[in-house]
Amino acid sequence: MELKSENLEITYQDLQKMGEGTFFLVDIREEFDVSYGGIPQALHVSQEKWKEKLQGFPKDKKLILYCNKGIFSRQRAEELVRQGFEAYSLKGGYHGWLISQMQESVNRKEQRGAEIEKSIRKKFHKQLFSRFAKAVRDYKLVQEGDRIAVCISGGKDSMVMAKLFQELQKHRKVSFELNFLVMDPGYSEANRKVIEHNARIMEIPITIFETEIFDAVYEVEKSPCYLCARMRRGHLYHKAKELGCNKIALGHHYDDVIETILMGMLYGGQVQTMMPKLHSTNFEGMELIRPMYYIREEDIKHWRDYNQLYFLQCACRFTDACSTCGPEGQNLSKRMEIKRLIAELKKTNPFVEANIFRSVENVNLNTVIAYKAHGELHHFLDGY
Length: 384
Prior knowledge:
By secondary structure, the chain is α/β, with parallel strands linked by helices. The protein folds into two domains: about 10-105, Rhodanese-like domain (Oxidized Rhodanese, domain 1); about 110-310, Rossmann fold (3-Layer(aba) Sandwich), CATH 3.40.50.620. The chain contains 16 helices and 13 strands. It has helices at about 10-15, 30-35, 50-55, 70-80, 95-110, 115-120, 125-140, 155-170, 190-200, 215, 225-240, 255-270, 295-305, 315-320, 335-345, 350-360, and strands at about 10, 25, 45, 60-65, 85-90, 145-150, 175-185, 205-210, 245-250, 275-280, 285-290, 370-375, 375-380. Strands 8-7-6-9-11-10 form a six-stranded mixed sheet, sandwiched between helices. A five-stranded parallel sheet has the order 1-5-4-2-3. The chain has a two-stranded antiparallel sheet with strand order 12-13. It is globular. Mean pLDDT is about 85; it is low at about 1-5 and about 320-330.
């Protein structure tokens, strides 16, 4: 077919009309972004391996590139054209494709809630629900009469957590209530629609409330992400308490826990972990719980892909602008570095992840130089 493109851009509809085997669809986002989802059959080539992989692309086939929003991929396409390739940028990038898939689903009037629930009860029962229920039981996360605000960011982790809570509620071992809470800190219209669409097809009755957090932190130069996270947590506590909830649930999983332990040691010079539950210091009577504590990220990804669900990595204005649509290496996540380190260690020690997790359960204070308890520093010389 004859491609009609503007500024080397083509739409996903154009792509669907192209003959099979006539092009390569290339995902040029960073590994961290790709871990949250991508277009099926796309070949991922990270920025650090770009020059190496480029040598293997034949010049008799079209190269269709995409990033998150189609900004950086257009620049790459222009570079490739100058090098003799027939290259194009997918208009709107991954986000644009996601919106098109969402619209097609609406047009088909898809009802997939029952299938998604069945996958949790059957195919992924051991990997997801059993581990969810075990964490709830082991750490006493849900008690009789609780009213829990299930905090949904729109990503795969918080969405599967919502479905697991719905499944847990059906078992009725204890009676508790749920509010599925979505905070809009200033999402773009498209990002918010993706969250609402996924909640609809997954049959999660969300309550959305709006804040202006993104506007408040956008001009902050030093640690805007830290400030944003603190503000978001505060707003979630406040809204949950307003709704009569006594707990908020966050979707951090097993991999988040072990990565946090290593990040604290390697980048923070301290030994600490992400606790399965903790009392709020600013909102009396409120508690934060993490019921996904035992669930592996790979299992969440398998559940997502099995159900053909697509989520945004983060609808944040910062990641929209710079995560992959900027200079090479501009936003390389420390967490991604830790993920790679753990993966490398696992090649020679298959138990490394479990050992990291258990390390904070087996702290021998007799062999620790100093530690803090309730804000007070204790040194081994104090009682030597």
